[in-house]
Design brief:
With 117 residues, the chain is an alpha+beta fold. It has one domain (3-27, 34-111): Inorganic pyrophosphatase (Inorganic Pyrophosphatase, Alpha-Beta Complex), CATH 3.90.80. It contains 2 helices and 6 strands. A hairpin with a 4-residue loop joins strand 4 (66-74) and strand 5.
Amino acid sequence: MNNDFWDFLDRLIFDKRIVVDRTRGTPHPAHPEIIYPLDYGYLEGTRSGDGEEIDVWMGASPIRRLSGLILTCDARKCDIEIKLLLGCTNQETQTILAFHNAGEMRAIGYPRPEENT
């Protein structure tokens, strides 16, 4: 992926309001045994492949810059989604990957390339 791709995503994020509807430590609304390890929400006014807004994981960094992407495959729902990582450290990204690589879901991560590469 080239820098234009990442810059384009940054502009999309900048222009939209981030809604956190599942805060760190809260249970999934339909599966109370699943606890969200970080804040999770969506970009208001966007659309993803599933017809819902684009999903966003929020890291601890106060800078809301895109730090990577997660691609998920959910066998139960029979869908694939892309989730944005905003301000996530490497450790937070690993936590999110572990969260998604449980049960009938699998995920891979794609970190944002360093600017100097």
